[in-house]
Design a protein that fits this description.
This protein is of the alpha+beta class and 83 residues long. Helices cover 35% and strands 12% of the residues. It is built from 3 helices and 3 strands; from the N terminus they run E-H-E-H-E-H.
Length: 83
Amino acid sequence: MIPIHVMPDTPTQAFLTALRQQGFAGEIDTSAAQRAGYATDNSIYERPPQAIVCPQHAADSQVLTRLLVQEQFRGVAATATDG
């Protein structure tokens, strides 16, 4: 699971749309419940992610990485977790 650091803002929405258009087969979740579950790291700090994306296979990870390095998505932060 990869939380993307709450409703998705415009850059994140564009990123998620691009993921789908590029054939991302994994799960993409923007529900409040899922985002709340990823908002803390067992400290006093909370930072709800804007989306949770779960690559299904290596090709999904490649799509995710390829998009993250594009100039238009440089503001999208991603954090990997074993969630």
